[in-house]
Design a protein that fits this description.
This is TPR repeat-containing protein. By secondary structure, the chain is an all-alpha fold. The protein has a single domain, classed as Tetratricopeptide repeat domain (Serine Threonine Protein Phosphatase 5, Tetratricopeptide repeat, Alpha Horseshoe), CATH 1.25.40.10. The chain has six helices and no strands.
Length: 104
């Protein structure tokens, strides 16, 4: 799916969306490290903003959380919330949730 000839031609938001889908498929198969690798690209730039960046950061945070890397996940949920100028994620809620967990 993510390696087909059409996928190679994708760029920008479309390529990011494909990465998110491919990483989700890997995660569903229990291949969490591979899912993280799929998302670990130069596009994972904390300086980006917008819906696609927010969704990419959110997906990355979810995988980190599934791997038991809660502190890193919290940082990426914070980045997702900052990038999410259109309110497409619940990253702020996830930050609150993880922050509450850490205080216990």
């Amino acid at each position: 799916m993510a390696r087909g000839s059409e996928a190679v031609e994708l760029s920008g938001d479309a390529a990011d969306e494909l990465r998110i889908v491919a990483a989700g498929a890997r995660a569903d198969l229990g291949q969490l490290e591979q899912a993280l690798t799929v998302l670990s690209t130069p596009q994972l730039d904390p300086g980006r903003t917008g819906s696609t960046a927010a969704r990419l950061f959110y997906a990355y945070a979810e995988i980190l959380l599934a791997l038991g890397r809660g502190d890193e996940a919290l940082q990426w949920f914070l980045r997702s919330a900052a990038a999410d100028i259109d309110g497409v994620t619940d990253a702020e809620d996830r930050v609150d949730e993880l922050g509450a967990r850490e205080q216990k």
